[in-house]
Amino acid sequence: AQSVTQLDSHVSVSEGTPVLLRCNYSSSYSPSLFWYVQHPNKGLQLLLKYTSAATLVKGINGFEAEFKKSETSFHLTKPSAHMSDAAEYFCVRMDSNYQLIWGAGTKLIIKP
Amino acid sequence: NAGVTQTPKFRVLKTGQSMTLLCAQDMNHEYMYWYRQDPGMGLRLIHYSVGEGTTAKGEVPDGYNVSRLKKQNFLLGLESAAPSQTSVYFCASSAKTATQPQHFGDGTRLSIL
Fold first, then answer.
1. What rounded mean pLDDT belongs to chain A?
2. Residue of A nearest to B42 (CA)
3. What is the pLDDT of residue B97?
4. CA of A99 vs chain B CAs: smallest distance (Å)
């Protein structure tokens, strides 16, 4: 079955340190992949998307993600965390019917 | 820029009551979706629509109905609310291509007592 696995339910980092949110997907082909962010009591905002162009994708707010087919991974990174990055992050893939398959989410906690 | 607008934002219902959630988008998108979000889980697709007058079932359609009478509106109905339908509901829309992202509303928090 096609799925998305976010390896950590919570990640805690200090402000100014790097962020790594891990995501693995299962697919028999190279899918379209997305990262969305959800701030508390808000809707979902697209951070970035991968659609089989460059494997390193840059998004908004300094985030980027690298598509690694050999590892079936699409991890999200940011060099230096900011307090405003505290939110829940969702890794999402598009299936063959153009529907979205969602990971369970990773809560990012930023320590001052 | 309105984008995707959901009404109401909050609602409390008693078991067995009915209600309709409204989603409106002003981006001329073909595709619209209704999801529910529950703690510890990603979003789950309830129903979706690929165009005016068409709807289809998603992953968790039972207990819900939808209608897409106008391109800009997508209605989600609960005919007889149950406590298991307590959730946050999100509407989304997207253009008619495989690679375009979905745009989300701010959600409706629904509690069924």
1. 91
2. A104
3. 66
4. 8
- Report the phi/psi class of residue A77: left, alpha or beta, with left for phi > 0 and alpha for psi in -120 to 50: beta
Distance between CA atoms of residues B95 and B77, nearest Å? 24
Q: pLDDT by residue (tens digit) across A64-77?
A: 999 998 899 999 99
User: In terms of residue numbers, what domain contains A98?
Assistant: 3-111
Contacts of B104 in chain A (CB under 8 A): 36, 43-45
Contacts with B58 from chain A: Cβ below 8 Å: 99
* Amino acid in position A91: C
Tokens of B20: 């309709």
pLDDT digits (tens, 9 = 90+) for B9-32: 999 999 999 999 999 999 999 999
Q: What is the CATH number of domain B4-97+106-112?
A: 2.60.40.10
What CATH number corresponds to the domain at position A38?
2.60.40.10
Total domains in the fold of chain A: 1
Determine the average pLDDT of the residues in A73-91: 96
Q: How far apart are CA B92 and CA B4, in angstroms?
A: 7
Domain boundaries, chain B: 4-97+106-112
Contact B42 A104 (CB under 8 A): yes
